[in-house]
């Protein structure tokens, strides 16, 4: 089962500032279930739904083989 950004402590919903897409700079003030969250080098990075769709193959290519 997967969880949405913001499920649990320290997630998307607990942020005081708007979340900014790490690729295009789009902003969201409330949790968006269509955004993706990535942890890269210990830092959370968020990607809007448009950027996530455009880069789906690259995202899937980084998943561990256990996901397949």
What is the strand content? Answer: 15-25%
Most strands sheet: 2 strands, antiparallel
What Rg, in angstroms, do the CA atoms define?
12 Å
How many distinct folded domains? 1
- Helical stretch count? 2
Principal-axes geometry comes out as globular
Order of helices and strands: EEEEHH
The first-to-last residue Cα distance is 14 Å
Mean pLDDT: 79
Number of strands: 4
Strand order of the largest sheet: 1-2
What percent of residues adopt helix (DSSP H or I)? 10-25%
Structural class: alpha+beta
Low-confidence stretches: none
Short description:
This protein has 68 residues and is α+β, with helices and mostly antiparallel strands. The protein is built from two helices and four strands. It has one domain.
Layout of strands and helices, then pairs:
Blueprint: E1 19-20, E2 27-28, E3 36-40, E4 43-47, H1 49-54, H2 56-61
Antiparallel strand pairs: 1-2, 3-4
């Amino acid at each position: 089962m997967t969880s949405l950004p913001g499920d649990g402590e320290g997630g998307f919903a607990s942020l005081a500032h708007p979340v900014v897409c790490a690729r295009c700079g789009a902003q969201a003030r409330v949790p968006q279930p269509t955004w993706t969250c990535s942890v890269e080098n210990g830092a959370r990075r968020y990607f809007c739904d448009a950027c996530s769709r455009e880069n789906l193959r690259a995202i899937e290519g980084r998943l561990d083989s256990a996901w397949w």
